[in-house]
Amino acid sequence: MLRITDDISIADWELTEQFIRASGPGGQNVNKVSTAVELRFEAERSPHLPAPVKARLKRLAGRRWTTEGALILQVDETRSQARNREIARERLADLIRQALVVPKRRIATKPTLGSQRRRLAAKSVRGEVKALRGRIEGEDD
Length: 141
Known about the structure:
By secondary structure, the chain is of the alpha+beta class. It contains 4 helices and 5 strands. The protein has helices at residues 28-32, 51-61, 81-100, 113-131; strands at residues 2-3, 9-10, 15-20, 36-41, 71-75. α2 crosses α3 (81-100). The longest helix has 20 residues, at 81-100. The protein is elongated, with a radius of gyration of 28 Å.
C-alpha cells in the first residue's frame, strides 16, 4: 500500500512493477542486471481517486499516460533496483499530490481608465515618430 495523504492511499493491485535493463553506460552491470524499474499505475480504474483528480493527473502526466488510462513511470537513475523502485514510488506520490491541488479560478478584470489612456497616448506618440520617418515633400536632392 502506497500512502499519498492521510485519507488517500493506493492499493497494491493498482501498481505493477516491471524491472528492465537500464540504458546508457555502465559496463557489465548494465548488460547483466535489470535495475531500471517501470512502474504502472492503473489510474483510470482506481477507486481511491476522485474524477477531478484523475483529470488533473492525466494533464500532468502528459505522454506518460496511456490510452488504457494507466500512468507509466520509468526510473533508471541508480544502479540499485531497490532505490530505483523507491524513486518511482516517490515520483508517483508527488504527481498525485500535485493533482490533488485544485487550481484557483482566474477572475477576469478590466484595465483601469488611467492605464487605457496611457496606452493610447503611447500609441499616438509612436505613430507620430513613425510618420516623421517618411520622405520629406518639396526638397530636391
